[in-house]
Predict the structure.
Amino acid sequence: MNGNCGWSTSNSPHRELVGESQNKSGRKSAGMSLLELIVACGILLVLATVAVPLARNQVKRVKENQLRWQLRQMREAIDRYKDASDKGLIQVKAGTEGYPVDLETLVKPTQLTGATDKRIRFLREISEDPMTKNKDWGLRSVQDDVDATGWGGQDVFDVYSKSSGTALDGTKYSDW
């Protein structure tokens, strides 16, 4: 280069970049050759095949985190209900051992014992299962067997997802 930042110093009225080539007809050749385009497309294809599975796993990971959070919220609400019944703050039905009869019981305002104007809610709403896209959760009662797949209907001791899918760590969502 001649110290002019890459511009030619010819006396022509049009400046041109030094190093631009001209083809046989005297026209400037600009752009990429076919080989360069094929190589660039190949590189983009490889990058895209790597990015798609990563994005798919990220979406699944977000849903799994939502499921964990939803389960934690409902289980904590069940525990708060049980604590309130054990302390005698709310009246419970006989045979429920202090657990709610269903999930709706956690959402509806419950009358506090001894206070006619005070009510308490343990859960704002029954949330949607991010895996099944509905509000139908699997329920377990205290009276159910540990490996039971159906709900006995006496009370709600635990909740789980009804999804038959498998998590990224290899466990079933229904086992969470």
